[in-house]
Amino acid sequence: MALGLDDVALAGQPTVFASDALAGKRLLVSGGAGGIGRAVAWLAGRCGAEVIITGRDRAKLDGAVAAMTAAGLRVQGHVVDIRKPETVADLFTGPVAEAGGIDLLVNSAGGQFPQAAIDFSLKGWNAVIDNNLNGTWHMMQAAARHWRDAARPGSIVNIVVVVDHGLYGVAHTIAARSGVIGLSRAVAVEWAPLGIRVNCIAPGAIETPGWRVYSPEARATYARSNPMMRAGTTWEIAESVIWIGGPSGSFVTGETVNVAGGSQLWGETWTTGRPDWFRPA
């Protein structure tokens, strides 16, 4: 069974944004062939933007580009490993420069695996930190230098997680995403004189194809991870990204917006299954 919204759904999903809301804008979405990134790319394209998506899987990128192009959207895809700063630099001096630059960077690339923190291997820990924190930073710094050197403003939206309440079994990504949040707050101040805004969107339990790494038993509890008693959709995250990252968010920087049904206030998400210790008597 499919998890999350497919291309057909993304092509027809209702939106609050006008079809020209991002006319004349160009977006770069890392992880743009995946669940949240793909939804962001679709919405941006439907709002009139040109879109560049990146990822490590050529087949997934080609599939996403083909589907969006068939719908009349302007999109291109490039294989990039954000963990390697040299390939990120090549992206900005190559395809990004050739396209005429970008206006908004959305860092959606990342990944993690459910495991008790006490069992993390050094390799597993470093892989998540390198991807989710270091990779995000490589993209942020390259984009900021691109805008500084071109003397033009820019906007960055980093996809993180709800780090202040109720997410367990992925301590490595909590560490990495907390780093991204702190980093975003710091450079939002440093880069304000350059006209660069930096914000984060923190999704809660969002149904995506990535849910396959979690057990059916764990997934069954996700609807009760927040007071709204449901999982969210990638489209709800995409609309939040476009709101805060686009012209509608022009006076917002350094913020982390939880798009999580209130899970930052109430509820638990145990990606590894809730231990018996925490089960009601």
Describe the structure.
- Helices cover 40% and strands 15% of the residues.
- With 281 residues, the chain is an alpha/beta fold.
- The protein has a single domain (21-278), classed as Rossmann fold (3-Layer(aba) Sandwich), CATH 3.40.50.
- It has a 7-stranded parallel beta sheet with strand order 3-2-1-4-5-7-8, with helices on both faces. A two-stranded parallel ribbon has the order 6-9.
- Strand 4 (104-107), helix 5 (122-150) and strand 5 (154-159) form a beta-alpha-beta unit.
- The longest helix is centred in the middle third of the chain and has 29 residues, at 122-150.
**Total DSSP helices:** 8
Main sheet attributes: strand count, strand direction, barrel closure: 7 strands, parallel
CATH topology: Rossmann fold
How are strands sequenced across the largest beta sheet? 3-2-1-4-5-7-8
Helix content: 25-40%
Distance between the termini: 34 Å
Instruction: Indicate the low-confidence ranges by residue numbers.
Output: none
Rg computed from alpha carbons, rounded to a whole number of angstroms: 18 Å
| Helix/strand order | HEHEHEHEHEEHEHHEE
